[in-house]
Amino acid sequence: MPSDRAGGEGGLEATALDAFTAARRTGWRARLAQAWASDLAHSFRRNPVAILSAVIVVVFFAAAALAPWIAPTNPYDLRTLSIMDNLLPPVWEEGGDPRFLLGTDAQGAGVLSGILYGTRISLIVGFGSVLLSMLLGVSIGVVAGYVGGWLDSLLMRIADIQLTFPAILIALLIGGIAESAVPASERGALAVPVLIFAIGISNWVQYARTVRGSTMVVRQLEYVAAARLIGRSPVAIMARHILPNIMGPVLVIATINLAFAIITEATLSFLGVGMPVTEPSLGMLIRDGNDYLFSGEWWLSVFPSAALVMLALAINLLGDWLRDALNPRLR
Amino acid sequence: MLAFFLRRLIHAAIVMLIVGLISFSLVQFIGDPVAAYLGLDVDPADRERLAEALGLNEPFIVQYLDYIARALSGDFGLSYATSRPVVEMIGERFPATFELALVASLMAIALGIPLGVYTALHPRSWLSRLFLTASLVGVSIPTFVIGVQLIHIFSVNLGWLPSYGRGTTVDLGGWTTGLLSLSGWQSILMPAFSLALVQLTLIMRLVRAEMLEVLRTDFIKFARARGLRRRTIDFGHALKNTMIPVITVIGLQIGTLIAFAIVTETVFQWPGMGLLFIQSVGAVDVPVMTAFLMVVAVIFVLINFVVDLLYLLVDPRLRGDRSGPVAGGANA
């Protein structure tokens, strides 16, 4: 904290301090300017692929957040659907209806609206599970790396054993168990939390290993020793002094993990342990659409697939850029 | 050497016991074995008798040890759904999954290593960039979407390849193989390819990253200074030194391969263990689920063991019998 050592040394330090407080006073505009000038922003502005991916991701996020307001129809509200509209092809095909841009499914619900609502569910599950695995993995990693000793070996052995089982198998197992443990009436309401738990719990190891590694490096540094000398508690040292300095790689993992979680959710839905049919995610839409693929109604599976792949690809490209941008060796 | 073997063996046994415990206890949460065998409306006395016979009244840990003891002699119990011995059901499905995973791995390695080497040696060429972007597209498409679209193109539209099953299989004394008939090869092509894509991307990126790393090291510079031929440096020195992490990851990824085989087998209705597992999840067939998990764990532990042995072959430094010089490095 710069304010701690504000006792007038003068010279260079005072100027830096002035700049700091000035930036504080002028608020968000200065902070925005600061962010704009940072290395990360600089590398972002020079990378057209990263910009394009970011735009796609933002569009998807916005579409998902605003789905109830911007979707042409509400696919969950069966009263607004008409069976007369069923299996209409997209607008530009013969027999298309301008009310349904991307065609309709067997119930007469618009595919575009289905995709908007489905993206919403896929993103909620994706973010939820990434948050869960990050929370778990980062705490386990910091504790293992900082405390060391038998606790470290224990935690890392658990991580090894967890790696024995591929993430998707663990998620499948948890999803399957929940499926049979939860009564059918509750299944719809619990589907999202169950998916978040299943996917989140199966992906923490990567965070833990990375964070443990960087923690072991950072804890050797002098400022951590200093913090220990002035008597800060281990928890405070881990949370306030170590964590902020090792978040870079975590951010990269989290980004790529988000794409992975969205794909995992789709795969689980495809295997039948995901979202219920009444509230389809992107994966469920694809699964449903597959049944019609061979009878010629290709739009039912192709558009949700395209949406899913575009979203995952954009996130992956962002993650790729972030990894390169944060890697000092490539600067 | 012997100490190394023993250490790995004990380690493997511990991992197996823990994994077995976890999968055994997880799966115990679901369903009621007595109801699964007898149905719901039976005499309570009958229920009690069967529960006693199945050992369900014993403490959990006794049940687990009993399960392990019987599993070691090849008895994984009877399937709830078919009342057949689980070991038989898994045994007849195993060759299908094994062949699928084998062909998929070979495809991934045969394509992934050359692509990785190429992109590392020519980092600025447009072809490398194309490969790298394509690999990101590859990881962004779910396996099942690739499978379904392959079927759509090659089975439905073009009619070149069968969309499901293994084709004609030949029975080699308990091991059914599809690799001896033309229809078997036609059938395995699409499932193996869609399964290989996941691995392919990973192997390619890993080989590239490791190779770039090695190319930066001093011994490569010295090799150049010695005037060795480019080909010798690239393949004799650099590639050889990237192989250790590559072997590890290929080995460790076999677990992932088996997991994704569940997806691939579902898409192509491939009669392997994965399809059996997904059917048993659907039918809450607990003995089959537990046995499948144990088999996966055994495969994983075995592969780890083999990977460790391969290390010894590839990296002479690790061979370090106490008699010889330990460090120094093969090419340094």
List keywords for this structure.
heterodimer; A: 331 residues; mainly alpha; MetI-like fold; B: 332 residues; 74% helix; globular
Reconstruct the topology from this structure.
The complex is a heterodimer of chains A (331) and B (332).
Chain A: H1 11-26, H2 28-37, H3 39-45, H4 48-65, H5 67-70, H6 111-147, H7 149-164, H8 167-181, H9 184-201, H10 204-218, H11 222-229, H12 234-242, H13 247-271, H14 282-293, H15 299-326
Helix pairs in contact in A: 3-15, 4-6, 4-15, 6-7, 6-9, 6-10, 6-13, 6-14, 6-15, 8-9, 10-13, 11-12, 13-14, 13-15, 14-15
Chain B: H1 2-28, H2 33-38, H3 44-54, H4 60-72, H5 86-121, H6 126-140, H7 143-157, E1 170-172, E2 175-177, H8 182-215, H9 218-225, H10 230-268, H11 273-282, H12 286-314, H13 316-319
Antiparallel strand pairs in B: 1-2
Query: Major sheet of chain A, described briefly?
Result: none
Give the CATH H-level superfamily of chain B. MetI-like
Q: Would you identify the CATH architecture of the largest domain in chain A?
A: Orthogonal Bundle
- Distinct helical segment count of chain A: 15
How many domains in all of chain B?
A: 1
**Mean pLDDT across all amino acids of chain A:** 78
> What best-fitting shape of chain B do the alpha-carbon axes yield?
globular
Short description:
The complex is a heterodimer of chains A (331) and B (332). By secondary structure, chain A is mainly α.
Describe this entry's structure for a reader.
The complex is a heterodimer of chains A (331) and B (332). Helices cover 72% and strands 0% of the residues of chain A. Chain A is an all-alpha fold and 331 residues long. Chain A folds into two domains: 2-37; 48-330, Orthogonal Bundle (MetI-like fold), CATH 1.10.3720. The longest helix of chain A is centred in the middle third of the chain and has 37 residues, at 111-147. Mean pLDDT of chain A is 78; it is low at 1-12. By secondary structure, chain B is mostly helical. Chain B has one domain (86-329): MetI-like fold (Orthogonal Bundle). Chain B is built from 13 helices and two strands, in the order H-H-H-H-H-H-H-E-E-H-H-H-H-H-H. In chain B, strands 1-2 form a two-stranded antiparallel sheet. Residues 321-332 of chain B have low confidence and may be disordered. Classes of the chains: A mainly alpha (331), B mainly alpha (332). The A-B interface holds A 160-161, 163-169, 172-173, 176-177, 179-181, 259, 263, 266-267, 270-273, 283, 286, 290, 293-294, 298, 301, 305, 308-309, 312-313, 316-317, 320 and B 15, 18-19, 22-23, 26-27, 29-31, 136-137, 139-145, 148-149, 152, 156, 252, 255-256, 258-260, 262-263, 266, 278, 281-282, 284, 289, 293, 296-297, 300-301.
